[in-house]
Amino acid sequence: MTAPHLELGRRGEDEAAVLLSRQGFRVLGRNIRNRCGEIDIVAMDGDELVVVEVRVRSIGEIMSPEDSVGPKKIRKLVRAGTLLVESKNWQGPWRIDLIAMTVDRKGEWNVEHFRDITDGAWRP
Fold first, then answer.
1. What is the pLDDT of residues 21-79, one digit of tens each?
2. CB 115 within 8 A of CB 74
3. Which of 34, 1, 41, 47 is nearest to 18 (CA)?
């Protein structure tokens, strides 16, 4: 039996993948692991590779999903993304997006998509 918070996270990632597809993204993979961490979703937005972090929270939690991604997590995403693009010999542009999801007591989702959460600041 899966813990409720893990099940909610999995459902959130499923919903995020559908949302990205509807927005015209091509989902390439999910739960991609490397020595620097795990990438929830890897997708293409046109000719740009996108590393997507999905955060899900229930209404009533102290911290919003977008506020739960701090500098430490961003550094980890940058390292995991950098390792991914290097391992695939990706030469094109890439960015990190955040999909922040909140589910209420009725099971309805509020979803926000934040594009390029580093605003390119980490790039050399």
1. 999 999 999 999 999 999 999 999 999 999 999 999 887 667 788 888 988 999 999 99
2. no
3. 41
Nearest of 71, 57, 77 to residue 4 by alpha carbon: 57
Evaluate the CA torsion angle 115, 55, 70, 26 in order and state its sign.
negative
Cα–Cα distance for residue pair 76/37, rounded to 1 Å: 7
Q: Which is nearest to 100 in space by CA: 92, 109, 91, 90?
A: 109
The beta-carbon contacts of 110-119 under 8 Å, at least 24 apart in sequence, are 111/15, 111/16, 111/19, 112/66, 113/19, 113/23, 114/66, 117/53, 117/69, 117/74, 118/74, 118/78
Domain boundaries, the chain: 4-100
Sign of CA dihedral 107, 99, 47, 35: negative
| Rounded Cα–Cα distance for residues 80 and 117 (Å) | 15
Class of the 4-100 domain? alpha beta
Q: What are phi and psi of 4, to 5 degrees?
A: -55, -40
Q: Is 16 helix (H, G, I), strand (E, B) or coil?
A: helix
Instruction: State both tokens at 80.
Output: 């995991």
